[in-house]
């Protein structure tokens, strides 16, 4: 006997009753991991499809996976932020029932401008080839609109940096032989190139008003 033909229909949206959230193509979602001890997978919904085949699940989502740095071939590096993701070339089809919630994957620039970072906020500045381990772009800008240090390590929004009041360049505390706690207590800072004898005296670690500090750290967690 011939098998009944399975019909499929594209959906513009779908409400997941378990979490009372409506998803649409283009949304970023958190998906149930293969092991409970692992963090939720992150994916971008490309297409939502209903099926008449009950065995396959009535609604399925076509997704494009985001990888975390530790899931990439090269692993996590010093400049990778804790909320950083890579948009991969890995496409998949999953049951809509595996979606645990919605999230937001910001551009790198947008993420650095957030007043507060929530649990469901992430950022992406690379696309990732899961077969070769190659990234696009293949390097990270360290100049221009991105803060940089004399070490030329790409900017990690998790790291505290100190700004020179002379040249406006930014520095990691360790790169200027300073602890993070000392950097947080700074009232004024001039880098080695901008320091005169008088300005060196202003690189003080005492009597600081926090509202006056030239510091930048990862945005507050909600």
From TrEMBL:
<keyword id="KW-0863">Zinc-finger</keyword>
<dbReference type="InterPro" id="IPR019786">
    <property type="entry name" value="Zinc_finger_PHD-type_CS"/>
</dbReference>
<feature type="domain" description="BAH">
    <location>
        <begin position="21"/>
        <end position="139"/>
    </location>
</feature>
<dbReference type="InterPro" id="IPR043151">
    <property type="entry name" value="BAH_sf"/>
</dbReference>
<keyword id="KW-0479">Metal-binding</keyword>
<dbReference type="InterPro" id="IPR013083">
    <property type="entry name" value="Znf_RING/FYVE/PHD"/>
</dbReference>
<dbReference type="InterPro" id="IPR001025">
    <property type="entry name" value="BAH_dom"/>
</dbReference>
<dbReference type="GO" id="GO:0008270">
    <property type="term" value="F:zinc ion binding"/>
</dbReference>
<dbReference type="Pfam" id="PF01426">
    <property type="entry name" value="BAH"/>
</dbReference>
<dbReference type="InterPro" id="IPR001965">
    <property type="entry name" value="Znf_PHD"/>
</dbReference>
<dbReference type="InterPro" id="IPR011011">
    <property type="entry name" value="Znf_FYVE_PHD"/>
</dbReference>
<feature type="domain" description="PHD-type">
    <location>
        <begin position="146"/>
        <end position="197"/>
    </location>
</feature>
<keyword id="KW-0862">Zinc</keyword>
<dbReference type="InterPro" id="IPR019787">
    <property type="entry name" value="Znf_PHD-finger"/>
</dbReference>
<protein>
    <recommendedName>
        <fullName>Chromatin remodeling protein SHL-like</fullName>
    </recommendedName>
</protein>
<dbReference type="Pfam" id="PF00628">
    <property type="entry name" value="PHD"/>
</dbReference>
<dbReference type="GO" id="GO:0003682">
    <property type="term" value="F:chromatin binding"/>
</dbReference>
């Amino acid at each position: 006997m011939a098998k009944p033909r399975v019909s499929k229909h594209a959906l513009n949206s779908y409400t997941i009753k378990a979490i009372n959230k409506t998803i649409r193509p283009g949304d970023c979602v958190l998906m149930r991991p293969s092991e409970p001890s692992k963090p939720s997978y992150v994916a971008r919904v490309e297409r939502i499809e209903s099926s008449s085949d009950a065995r396959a699940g009535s609604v399925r989502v076509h997704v494009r996976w985001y990888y975390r740095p530790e899931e990439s071939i090269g692993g996590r590096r010093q400049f990778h932020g804790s909320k950083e993701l890579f948009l991969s070339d890995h496409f998949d089809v999953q049951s809509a029932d595996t979606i645990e919630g919605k999230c937001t994957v910001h551009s790198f620039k947008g993420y650095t401008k957030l007043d507060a970072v929530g649990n469901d906020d992430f950022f992406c500045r690379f696309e990732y080839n899961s077969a070769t381990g190659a990234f696009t772009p293949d390097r990270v800008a360290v100049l221009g609109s991105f803060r940089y240090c004399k070490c030329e390590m790409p900017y990690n929004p998790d790291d505290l940096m100190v700004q020179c009041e002379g040249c406006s360049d930014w520095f990691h505390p360790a790169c200027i032989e300073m602890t993070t706690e000392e950097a947080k207590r700074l009232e004024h800072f001039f880098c080695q190139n901008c320091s005169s004898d008088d300005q060196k005296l202003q690189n003080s670690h005492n009597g600081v008003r926090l509202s006056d500090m030239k510091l930048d750290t990862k945005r507050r967690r909600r």
